[in-house]
């Protein structure tokens, strides 16, 4: 069940496609209910479940909220309503999974009223859970998906589960994933330090070939950031570039590691645009430097790959002078666009969330919902006021304040 009805842009539920493939492979009868474009989601859900009469209902919960202060939409209340509709419609147990659970799997499960929650990759975990259903045993409340993971060499057959047409008509893109988890440790991020598991590059290219065969030409990578480890990336890109598939694709990357060979291969495989994630906390603590950013932007430019920078600034301890220097640096190096965000979404279990819970900073303010100890309802930390940021940016069209416009970077860089 995909309850994600946020359309800016609409996102094809890749996780569900993968799960459906694994269930089907093991001989289970599977129905995917996609509510993204449903006119009456409650009726569609209730009727579909009453007709299908499943033994287990799985919800993929992708976003808690938009995580943008200036465009805040909270989704969990709608998900909670749909979970209770599902239970009433067929009486089956409800299991949830998806990235929203990174904010706290127990907390999200309790909020939406699910019977069980899988955090991390769900492919094999869901099969494991079905053994409990078959044995008519109580489901585990929480299941660690990384302990089960996925089969490295599996080539998911995706074509039959989700109708891509309405997504593609409405600016959506098909996704694909080459790895899960993150080797980074960014204080603000839900994905920091999640166990890293890679797919076999040959399996990824076989999946891409099947997508190509079915007419998909444009793609978005669904790894948190592609360049976790250089050799792994290059192996995949080399295979892809020599496969003759003529895709155009967009991806997220972090400043390091990179080298010229990586950009050369990215170009050969059809990469057209990159969102480069930069945050002042990582920069000022020396995880990477301005030299790395400059070299990234220049090498990408040399190979004809467009770069949009997602810049998150205004952590406790940042200095105004250093932030202004950072903006001046981007003014000089000039990527295609820089989206500046000074409103940092705080989650209970991120480094920043734990710090702020232990010891609220002397400077800066909390915006949003302070009453929710689980921080599921949007809560932001901010010390750089909008007026000041706008003054620093001036009228340079390079910069945008993130959240004032509903568009993704891949759409911006298409223009
Ligand atoms: C790629 C990406 C995008 C791309 C998507 C491109 C595309 N065509 O697919 C774009 C740029 C469009 C995008 C947009 C947005 N994104 Co985004 N995105 C991602 C990213 C990097 C990958 C998502 C993904 O597909 N992963 C791969 C699939 C295979 O994994 P999965 O869905 O998690 O599913 C697996 C498991 O979770 C589990 N599972 C999933 N469902 C279920 C269900 C059950 C029952 C079980 C058992 C298991 C299970 O098993 C699956 C297989 O392993 C994630 C971070 C991440 N690394 O996941 C952020 C992320 C999901 N995005 C995020 C956000 C905020 C957004 C936006 C709201 C940003 C904005 N304000 O515009 C929009 C929302 C758009 C929308 N309509 O939903 C946040 C959500 C955080 C939050 N507070 O809710 C994340 C987590 C990034 C972050 N670190 O903060 N995004």
Architecture overview:
With 415 residues, the chain is α/β, with parallel strands linked by helices. It folds into 2 domains: 134 residues, 3-Layer(aba) Sandwich (Rossmann fold), CATH 3.40.50; 199 residues, tm_1862 like domain (pyruvate-formate lyase- activating enzyme, Alpha-Beta Horseshoe). 36% of the residues lie in helices and 16% in strands. The chain has a 7-stranded parallel sheet. Strands 1-2-3-4 form a 4-stranded parallel sheet, sandwiched between helices. Helix 2 runs parallel beside helix 3. It is globular and about 60 Å long. The mean pLDDT is 96. Cobalamin binds next to helix 1, strand 1, strand 2 and helix 5. The site of cobalamin (B12) has 44 residues, from helix 1, strand 1, strand 2 and helix 5.
Major beta-sheet overview:
7 strands, parallel
How are the strands of the biggest sheet laid out side by side?
A: 5-8-9-10-11-12-16
Say which molecules are bound, naming each kind only once: cobalamin
The number of domains is 2
Overall shape: globular
CATH hierarchy class name of the largest domain: Alpha Beta
Unreliable sequence segments: none
**Class derived from helix and strand content:** alpha/beta
């Amino acid at each position: 069940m995909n309850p994600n009805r946020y359309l800016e842009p609409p996102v094809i539920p890749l996780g569900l496609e993968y799960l459906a493939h694994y269930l089907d492979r093991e001989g289970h009868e599977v129905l995917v209910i996609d509510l993204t474009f449903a006119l009456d989601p409650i009726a569609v859900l209730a009727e579909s479940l009453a007709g299908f009469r499943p033994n287990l209902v799985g919800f993929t919960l992708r976003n808690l909220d938009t995580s943008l202060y200036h465009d805040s939409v909270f989704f969990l209340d709608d998900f909670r309503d749909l979970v209770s509709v599902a239970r009433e419609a067929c009486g089956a147990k409800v299991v949830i999974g998806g990235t929203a659970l990174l904010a706290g799997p127990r907390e999200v499960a309790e909020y939406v009223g699910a019977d069980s929650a899988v955090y991390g990759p769900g492919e094999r975990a869901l099969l494991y859970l079905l053994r409990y259903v078959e044995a008519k045993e109580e489901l585990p409340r929480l299941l660690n998906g990384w302990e089960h993971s996925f089969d490295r060499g599996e080539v998911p057959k995706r074509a039959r589960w989700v109708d891509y047409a309405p997504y593609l008509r409405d600016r959506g893109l098909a996704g694909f994933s080459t790895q899960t988890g993150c080797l980074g440790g960014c204080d603000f991020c839900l994905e920091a330090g999640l166990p890293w598991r890679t797919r076999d590059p040959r399996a990824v290219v076989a999946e891409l070939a099947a997508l190509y065969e079915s007419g998909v030409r444009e793609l978005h990578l669904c790894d948190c950031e592609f360049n976790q480890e250089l050799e792994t990336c290059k192996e995949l890109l080399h295979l892809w570039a020599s496969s003759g598939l003529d895709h155009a694709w967009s991806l997220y990357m972090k400043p390091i590691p990179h080298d010229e060979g990586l950009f050369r291969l990215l170009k050969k495989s059809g990469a057209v645009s990159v969102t480069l994630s930069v945050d002042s906390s990582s920069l000022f603590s020396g995880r990477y430097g301005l030299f790395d950013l400059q070299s990234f932007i220049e090498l990408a430019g040399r190979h004809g790959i467009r770069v949009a920078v997602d810049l998150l600034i205004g952590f406790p301890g940042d200095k105004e002078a250093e932030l202004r220097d950072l903006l001046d640096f981007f003014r000089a190096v000039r990527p295609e666009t820089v989206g500046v965000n000074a409103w940092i979404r705080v989650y209970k279990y991120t480094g920043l969330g734990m710090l702020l819970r232990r010891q609220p900073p002397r400077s800066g303010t909390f915006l949003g919902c302070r009453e929710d100890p689980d921080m599921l309802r949007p809560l932001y930390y901010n010390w750089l006021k909008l007026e000041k940021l706008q003054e620093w940016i001036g009228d340079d069209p390079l910069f945008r304040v993130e959240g004032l416009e509903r568009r993704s970077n891949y759409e911006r860089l298409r223009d």
